């Protein structure tokens, strides 16, 4: 019985440690949005910095919402700026996730947020 209890604790411990990191433990800074190119070759650039403020190493998924002048979402994409690499506490990674969105001339504002956290 003690062996079963110890095995269960060891299996659940990594899940409990992962639960300590949440989307709010990551910060997004220095976001710059621009349209690059002209005509049909125009692409969107959404650059920023993702920072891990969690006490343990983890990765974060970021969502970009492109909105029209009235706030309606025209396009939304998600990506992992660090890929499958965990960022250690205090570490950051620069990203440009604009290539995920096709530029539209009626895109007027953008929001960038952390939507998921995972330890790889």
Automatic annotation (TrEMBL):
Key word Signal present: yes
Secretion signal, residue range per the UniProt entry: 1-19
Keywords on record: Signal
Protein name as annotated: Spore coat protein U domain-containing protein
